[in-house]
Amino acid sequence: MVTRAAELVRDGSAFPARIQLVGLPLALDDSSIRVEVETEGEGQAPIAGDLRVTLSVPSDDPELPPPSNGELDLAQLELDLAIEARTQLTRAKGRLATLQGLARGRPEEGKAPAPSPTAARLQLLAFRRERGEQLGRAIDAANERVRVAKEQLETLRERERLASSHKNARTHELRKAAILELDHGSGPELVSRVRVKLHYFVPGARWAPAYTVRLDRAMRAATLELRAMVGQSTGEDWHDVALTLSTASPQQWTELPELKSRRIGRRQPPPAKKGWRPPPVGADQLYADYDRGLGEPPVEDEPVVEAAKSETFVYDLDDDEAEAEEMADAGMPQPDAKQRKSAAPMSMDAPTRSMPPSLSGAPPSAPMQYPMPASLGAPKRSAGFGALVGGAIGGIASAFAPEEGRGGGGGGPMAPGGGGFVPEPELVAGRDLLDYGRLRLSSASSYRRGSLRRIDRRTQYQQLCVEYVRVDVAIEQIDEAVAWARLLETERAPEGHRWPSSEGGFDYAYVAEAPVDLASTGVFTSLPIDLREAEATPRYVSVPRESADVFRIVALRNPLAAPLLAGPADVYVAGKFALTSSVELTPIDGRIEVGLGVEQAIKIARNVSFSEDTPGMFKRQLELRHTLELEVQNHTSSAATVEIRERLPIAAKALADDISIEVEQVSPEWEDYDPKDAVPSLEGGRMWKVEVPASGKRELSATWIVTIPINHELIGGNRRES
Predict the structure, then answer these.
(1) Cα(610)–Cα(614) distance, integer angstroms
(2) DSSP class of 714
(3) Which of 160, 389, 607, 648 could form a disulfide with 684 if both were Cys (CB 3.0 to 4.6 A apart)?
(4) How distant, in Å, are the alpha carbons of 615, 616, 649 from that of 620?
(5) Are 517 and 615 members of one domain?
(6) Domain encompassing residue 703
(7) Please, are residues 698 and 640 in contact by the beta-carbon 8 Å criterion?
(8) For the whole model, what pTM was predicted?
(9) Highest taxon of the source (predicted)?
């Protein structure tokens, strides 16, 4: 959604009755435009009235008269001379690079070699350096001369083009404009300045979240920067704009929920939805003075409504009186006998009207015709009138045949053959009929007077455009601009990024702290959005059973007032790039964990000793004693919390009665470790959390005994580490 603002200054005692806001993009959604009038201070403000969208072409600038042929020739000559001078300088610099000193000649046999011309070679090198710098400065000046000459020639050609009396709609020139009508308020209480804001939707803009995390050397202070990969091809460049990013889709169609009532009693069919209603009674009396004063009979004007793309059929009401009764129940006007006789026979190829007769204002003699979906085929005679689906205004209506055998309780009409009650037809207006901005009231001289009709885009722009514009070409360019803008919505997210979406039915907005600039090229650019300080808690994790490496992990609390969306995160430690991690969806005040790789300054040594014993008098059991000793050394300049993970052996369920495992001693105490996301699930997990002082060490130990029957043995030796 784009918001444009313009200041309007009062001219004299009142504001102008109509203003035109130009420079709007071609891809603008005409039905979404809204206007807002703001004032500063006290006083009466004008009221915004009608708002329409039309086409606009830049007008002639009297300060820029069209150039003469001599001016164009001189500008072209200047450009050619500048290009030739730059070419000669570039060639001279190339020849200078080939200037090399000659090698020292070979002396005659028996004679000493000639002295090396060191001074001459140094003079040659100095000459090449000095001349090269001069040519470099001259080439830079020549490039600037070529640029100025090109701009001058393009400016003259543009002035010549704008001076043309007939302007065709061109991609770089045609724009849309908004025509706003204001009231005629005047007086001393009227404000002298107002601010007019236009709000409209335009396709062709997408964004994907990204993050930058900066940590200090101790990893206890952090800043979280929210960035966004933004691309837009809306047809207008963004210069110094206030940007707000949202997870919502403003152009998505959403049906409002329908709250249905619940009643206790006999089952009744649901009431039919009314998609149209008959015109008010006595509407023709509004034109009584016109007919009495002019006395001109209404004429049939050319229809300008957009044709409905559907197959149609015509009902012959003369053959079936039951259909006329159903029409009366549905609120449709009933033709008399003379009209029934004049109605055309049923035909699938007959032309269709765009509205029901009660809405279109057609003369009574016109046959009643309704569009029919192609999937229904020809209507059955036993089906009756069926259901009418369509809209009251702009008129795309369809006649449906009810399903055979469908019935229910209630007071609806009886179906033939005792099949129960037939539900009343459901009438629903289509979305295209809700475009109120393209509805026009027929003139008083038209036989369709008193009814609204939906005009096409060509007529809409022609009625409001005050300049000469080829509307056919303009509509083609509008369709091309919209199609080009929507291409961006079908592209994949940049590598490593993900498009944002609503989470749990909630949408969030992220406001950029500073204005941004972004050209309408469709290229995704990284833009800064917000920067906050975050609470950081470092810790270290090691699994010495598998590897002696100690891994760094930093837990960050979400500092934003909105959730962190899924996206990549660039992590910097002490000003140096560490790695690129991934952030998953994190709620407000939630925590994210970022892995930073191996910490080389923390070392862990793991030693295991094993012994066997047969305790007791009868020597029927064998005890396998395992002693684990760990030493953690911290060579960093600050204390470190190290998390060491181990695992006890687990007896198979089939041998649980014969094999027992008993922990004899642990120093310091450990705790159970059961990660929820482990696949397969981890059994026997244990974990130490120890605080190791700076430049200090900690020792840990654990002893457990595995008792097995003496007649058992470990196949393959002691597998205490498995």
Answers:
(1) 14
(2) -
(3) 648
(4) 8, 8, 22
(5) no
(6) 602-709
(7) no
(8) 0.62
(9) Bacteria
